[in-house]
Design a protein that fits this description.
single chain; mainly beta; Cathepsin D, subunit A, domain 1; 2 domains; two-stranded antiparallel sheet
């Protein structure tokens, strides 16, 4: 994957054929695959490559309407299906959301959205993502070279999001005491910043030593 200034991690998937690539954000906080449709004429759509189902022999019209509001704007789309390719993996008839209209604020990013169809990341039985200067998405397993020690597994407490139950928040290996009654945390690869209750975040920031 391509690391853009430690804020976005993008890669390529192809739709309808391996020779039709699109650059996407692999976002574990998104419940759908969102693709710019050739039917969308808004600025955010026409400035990026657009998917045209009329040119695909494997396109399947499902026609489920989707209207999702975010803090950053609104997306109106239609759920259809086509073959998806990525990293040597082929998924036949993968559901995805065609964006037919969008209203997004400048520099915004799509994150948590509708709770409908399985995405590429949830279709795979096992997915691992490494976010660093050299970033990598692995479908169907993990790379032992990207971590040290034991690999631990945790139950997901919400089937729609990667929502986990946490006992402690550690900084430098020390419990900073902001999770005494338990916390819910989302492992969201599509969000550029840490988000949470403001008082708790200030406590986290207060533990950092910044040298100028």
């Amino acid at each position: 994957m391509y690391n853009f200034k430690n804020t976005q991690y993008t890669g390529e998937i192809s739709i309808c054929s391996e020779g039709n690539p699109f650059k996407v954000i692999f976002d574990t906080g998104s419940a759908n695959i969102w693709m710019n449709s050739a039917r969308c004429h808004d600025v955010g759509c026409v400035n990026h490559k657009q998917y045209d189902g009329s040119k695909s022999s494997t396109f399947k019209h499902l026609g489920y309407d989707l209207d999702v509001e975010f803090g950053t704007g609104e997306l109106i789309g239609e759920i259809n299906a086509d073959d998806v390719y990525g990293g040597g993996v082929e998924i036949d008839g993968q559901d995805f959301s065609e964006i037919v209209q969008e209203s997004l604020k400048q520099d915004s990013m799509v994150s948590l959205d509708s709770l409908t169809q399985p995405s590429l990341l949830t279709t795979s039985a096992l997915t691992s993502i490494t976010l660093s200067r050299t970033s990598e998405l692995t479908l169907g397993g993990w790379d032992n070279d990207h971590f040290e020690g034991d690999l631990n597994f945790h139950d997901v407490s919400d089937k729609y999001y990667w929502l986990l139950e946490a006992d402690k928040i550690l900084v430098g290996g020390k419990d900073i005491g902001i999770c005494k009654r338990g916390c819910k945390v989302v492992s969201d690869t599509g969000t550029s910043l840490l988000t949470g209750p403001s008082d708790d975040l200030m406590n986290v920031i207060g533990t950092f030593q910044i040298n100028i």
